Amino acid sequence: MMVEHSDTLHQVVTAVADTAHAASGHEAMTPGEIFGHLLKHLQNSNELALPFVGNVELPKFPPIHIGGVAIDLSITKHVVFLLFCGMLLTVSAILAARAYRKSLVPRGFVNLLETVVSFVIDDIALPSMGKAGMKYVPYLLTTFFYILLMNLIGLVPYGATATGNIMVTAGLAIVAFVMIQFSAIRAQGMKHYLAHLTGGVPWPLWPIMIPIEFLSLFTKPFALCIRLFANMTGGHIVVVSLIGLIFVFHSYLIAPAPLILVIGIDMLELLVAFIQAYVFTTLTALFMGIGIPSEEHSEGH
Amino acid sequence: MAPQVFAYLAAGLGAGLVILGAAFGIGKLAAAAMEAAGRQPEAIGKIQTAMIISAALIEGVTFFALAICILLALK
């Protein structure tokens, strides 16, 4: 059943308990206060909820100062899940590689992995980058599996969605930006890469064209970052709002209606988790493919 | 009336307008994709990919506008 396998639901259960506790203290909470209280459970925090143990306080490190900028490297809830997903991915990739050394015919879990890997190669990498892009497939596979795992782990009880934190998606987008520029420069050479920034227009128009082209280099990864963040956060906010209705109406009788709606939204969340991993990878591959000249690519622009 | 009232009003109306635009765009996109898939069922894979990419691009711009609405409501 979906009910048991949803993080949003788990988060909501703890959030509901907390909100009920807070509400019992002082009678009337405004809807805004209720919403704010529930929303806290979507945000990054220094507490990790564990099964049977309860909330665990995570270690805090003093911020590191580099040239007047304080960098806080404390391990927070989202960092725990970032590291956990990374380790899970590394271990399963190594296990899959070992299985291939024994026999080339995949079975069980490795078979599942191979299906997804061949999907990424055939449906994402090859159509947008062609044969020349095959050397960037490892990067695309890493991105796809990492984002997918982080999205899905948010749908497991006691899990948190690390991709629902804009800093995480910004990090992913920065890596994508570096890879897009790197692949373009490597495929075309520095001279051609800079020539593309002029957009191929006559030189009097360069002062207009160069800033636009330069800006468009940054808007693409920025859109990637915002899209993933907003999609993963949006679904959770909808769930929280629906559950918040119970507190706003101050009645148990209203509870079944939000519950049914929340189960529906959770089904949608499962779909969105896959689609967003797919979209992030496809768009990265597409932007990289623009920079990599193929046989059909004309030099005209 | 306090200026915050207008900010909330603008945020609410803005979010509604943004969704109208996005829904219109994605609706047209989906209609065209369905029609294309109906004409050429063998090309459904390629059509789907192109549709999802275009939908994602429309969605991206929508999120920019929604972020502005959220900023209006929160500040």
Topology:
The complex is a heterodimer of chains A (301) and B (75).
Chain A: H1 7-25, H2 31-39, E1 47-50, E2 54-57, E3 64-66, E4 69-71, H3 77-102, H4 108-129, H5 137-153, H6 166-188, H7 190-196, H8 206-249, H9 256-291
Antiparallel strand pairs in A: 1-2, 3-4
Chain B: H1 3-39, H2 44-74
Largest interface: A-B, 13 and 14 residues
Unreliable runs of chain A: 1-6, 297-301
Give the rounded overall mean pLDDT of chain A: 81
| Cα separation of the termini of chain B | 17 Å
Strand order of the largest sheet of chain A: 1-2
What is the CATH top level name of chain B?
Mainly Alpha
Give average pLDDT of chain B, whole number: 88
Query: Which structural class should the secondary elements of chain B be placed in?
Result: mainly alpha
Could you say what the CATH topology of chain B is called? F1FO ATP Synthase
Distance between the termini of chain A: 54 Å
Please count the beta strands of chain A (DSSP E, at least 2 residues each).
4
Strand content range of chain B? under 5%
Assembly of the depicted chains: heterodimer
Biggest sheet character of chain A: 2 strands, antiparallel
What's the total helix number of chain A? Answer: 9
Number of domains of chain A: 1
Parts with pLDDT < 50 across at least 5 consecutive residues of chain B: none
Shape verdict of chain A: globular
